Amino acid sequence: MLVAFSIAPTTTDDPDASVAASVTEAVRIVRESGLPNETNAMFTNLEGEWDEVMGVIKQCVDAVAAVSSRVSLVVKADIRPGHEGQLTAKVERVESALRQR
């Protein structure tokens, strides 16, 4: 399963709290999960089994909710049982096709 997600507080309950700090904490959780992942300017991509991926996303929500009473979460999933390594394989297939043109 591949998941692309974006998470952020919509407000901060603490006027001294930083939006960037809570997003940084969510990225730390993802990276420490041990699951294949990558972060870009818009989303964090994560690969694994349903329960482990959703467990990491829940941990991220909990971390952001610690500084905000309202959390924005966008999730897009590619659920394809029996396929692993797709975080990089999908991109490699496109790059290969581009080189052949």
TrEMBL record:
Residue intervals of the Thiamine-binding protein domain: 3-95
InterPro entries: MTH1187/YkoF-like (IPR029756), Thiamine_BP (IPR002767), UPF0045_domain (IPR051614)
Gene Ontology CC, one term: cytosol
Record Pfam families: Thiamine_BP
Coiled-coil regions listed in the entry: none
PANTHER family, alphabetized: UPF0045 PROTEIN ECM15
Family: Belongs to the UPF0045 family.
Protein name per the record: Uncharacterized protein (TIGR00106 family)
Organism for this UniProt entry: Nocardioides albertanoniae
